[in-house]
Amino acid sequence: PNQVGSREELADYIAIVDQKSTPFVSMAPKGKDLGNMTFSWQVDNYATPTAGGVRDGTDVTYTAGNPGSPVNPVPNRTRLTNYAQVFRNDLRIGFVANTQNVAGVGNGGEIANGISKRLIELKRKMESTFLCTNQPLTQEDGTNAYLTSSLGNWLLTTNSAGMGAPTSTFAPNTAAVDSTASASFVEATAQNVLTGIYNATGTFRDYDVFLGATLKRAFTNLTAGGLSTVNGAGTTNTYTQTSVRTFNQELGDDTFKASVDIFEGDFGRLILHPDVWISSTNGTPSATTFNNVAYKGYVVPMDMVEIRYAKMPEVKPLPDNGGGEGRLIQAIAGLVVKNPAGFGMFNGAS
Fold this sequence. Notes:
Strand content: 25-35%
Low-confidence stretches: none
Number of helices: 5
Shape: flat
Radius of gyration: 27 Å
Largest sheet: 6 strands, mixed
Mean pLDDT: 88
Structural class: alpha+beta
Number of strands: 15
Distance between the termini: 53 Å
């Protein structure tokens, strides 16, 4: 009823259900501080073994100065280069809004509440950028800003200069980048990626996998039942049968677990980290929108990546010219992929 004088009841909280985490930015090692927007590191590998022996008394012969001869032990040593990128958010609270007592905001007022939100949003922007499948390395040129080459760009692109993408010598093994669609994902898909990485590295180890929700479900579905169609023996008929799913569970256990969080294959273990920020753009320096690609995932040896900062996330006050207080939230950082040959990727088209 329209009752004059009834008080409004407003709860003293603001409910936000969006709690998406940023595992890659949280887990990636922080490299040394950057002194320049352009930064580099070196990669190398070992020579392929050759067959045959050496007869007694044979002298060493070589062509001095020929990079392809045994005189040069580092013919494949290469410099890889990336750029740092500026990540920025801002906020401003009007001079009237800043005087209001808003439910759920707390003692710091709208400024403190806005700073907290913008810092989280900045971290999400960094996560989406680093895990983008195709953000290109871009140098500031008066039109475009500096862009850091994203992880997908390092794993899916090769060039001869090592700028923002590896040379073909240090690109991932072709078998380590699998294009199987999530709907067709089977155990062999994961095994093939691990095998491809092993053929490049020769090591059995743990890998952290940052993957979208669709691909995470595909891993869990490896243990699920389904329908299989078989031909009847000696007939042209086909029969659809339900696959049998078996699992062990204590009789008194009232929890049904249907999740695959660690996949252990012949050549390593995949530790799965669901991540909603795996993204793509239209692949141009002027791109302003991320598109979610929940069916892709990166296989990452975490000691082979770094996030290097020229400026850690900081909050700076902006001038108040009478309209209200403002703040700048900003970071400058770039991605290091130390040697892309040791990585893998699930790069299905859907």
